[in-house]
Amino acid sequence: MIVLTGATGNVGRALLERLLAADRPVRALTRDPQRAGLPAGAEVVRFRPDDPAALFTGATKLFLYAQAAGPQPADLLRAAHEAGVRHVVLLSSAIIAEGADETHPIHVMHATVERAIQDSALEWTFLRPGAFATNALQWAPQIRAGDTVRGVFVGARSAPIHEDDIAAVAERALLDTGHEGAVLRLSGPQATSNAEQVAAIGRALGRDLSFVEVPPEQAGPELFPHVPPHMLQGLLDSFRAAVDATPEITDTVEKITGSPARAFARWAEDHTADFRA
Ligand SMILES: NC(=O)c1ccc[n+]([C@@H]2O[C@H](COP(=O)([O-])OP(=O)(O)OC[C@H]3O[C@@H](n4cnc5c(N)ncnc54)[C@H](OP(=O)(O)O)[C@@H]3O)[C@@H](O)[C@H]2O)c1
After folding, report:
1. Ligand 1 near 238 CB (within 6 A)
2. Are the folds of 2-129 and 132-162+188-247+262-277 the same?
3. CB of 136 sitting under 6 A from ligand 1
4. Fewer CB near the last or first residue (10 Å), C or N of the chain?
5. Cα–Cα dist 86/83, whole Å
6. In 3-state terms, what secondary structure has residue 68?
7. CATH class entry, domain 2-129
8. Given this model, what pLDDT does residue 109 score?
């Protein structure tokens, strides 16, 4: 049995579909099973960290989101190990790197969980992806409403990764042996700027979209509805640092899965429904 936290998330849902297609028994955790809309075939269990037996009984593997691990992850990890879990695959972040700002809230959140896992009795694999292509969903309400996208840092560049490429790597890390102790840095195949991403979404939709830059000091929560307010400043700082920068590009997706990472244009084609009114 493989336990998935984040089963309703972009990566977790893609991983869940992969594991079900591979006929693996999966327990999908969510804080709200009623609203989760998870596929039949998964055992859906309410995520309640104070009831670890319900979460982990019968399981040997765990796919973990840092948010689910919480600020004090040791208790959850101990409970998982006591119930029989032996290997955890963590969805971490590329922000953890040599010379990184260790006070950045996104760094703190993931590094705290990585350290707790290393201090636990569990085998582990850390996935450290860079920017997700799904970050472009922040523009979906504007694109559904018109042809202009207001956003920060038109020239910020990233190598966005398709959520299903992260899921494909997670699937191999969970199902194959040999990934224990590995830190896998993941990215999409090419650097693209924010303006290029908006243009690619426009091409996928058959529309001509343009990007209008908003000064970061005027960027409020309405532009980032899914970002917790205490994370917003750190995120803006990361975007600022990405202007005209060369993002890290790795070939880890291809090495682990045998298929090259998908380009942002392909992601946009896969997600046209999210941008249509
Ligand atoms: N976006 C990026 O560019 C990027 C880059 C590197 C790493 N990451 C990391 O990737 C993760 C986000 O991945 P995603 O886009 O797939 O997620 P997402 O679509 O934002 O979904 C978040 C998932 O986390 C679960 N969750 C949130 N808070 C929780 C809590 N307190 N307890 C238990 N479960 C909780 C939610 O489950 P329920 O609501 O169903 O309970 C949901 O399934 C974050 O850890 C982020 O830091 C993101």
Report:
1. no
2. yes
3. no
4. C
5. 9
6. helix
7. alpha beta
8. 95
Q: How many C-alpha atoms does 217 have within 13 Å on its Cβ side?
A: 0
Which residue ranges make up each domain of the chain? Answer: 2-129, 132-162+188-247+262-277
pLDDT category, 219, cuts 50, 70, 90?
Answer: confident
**Between the CA atoms of 106, 85, 56 and 47, what dihedral angle is there, to the nearest 10 degrees?**
10
Q: Is the CB of 135 under 6 A from ligand 1?
A: yes
List the end-to-end C-alpha distance of the chain, in Å, as a whole number.
39
For ligand 1, the distance from its centroid to the CA atom of residue 15, given in whole angstroms, is 13
Distance 17 CA to ligand 1 centre (A): 17
pLDDT for residue 70: 86
pTM value?
A: 0.96
Measured from the CB, is residue 158 less than 6 Å from ligand 1?
no
The fold of the 132-162+188-247+262-277 domain, in CATH, is Rossmann fold (3.40.50)
Lookup result for tokens 């291809």: 254
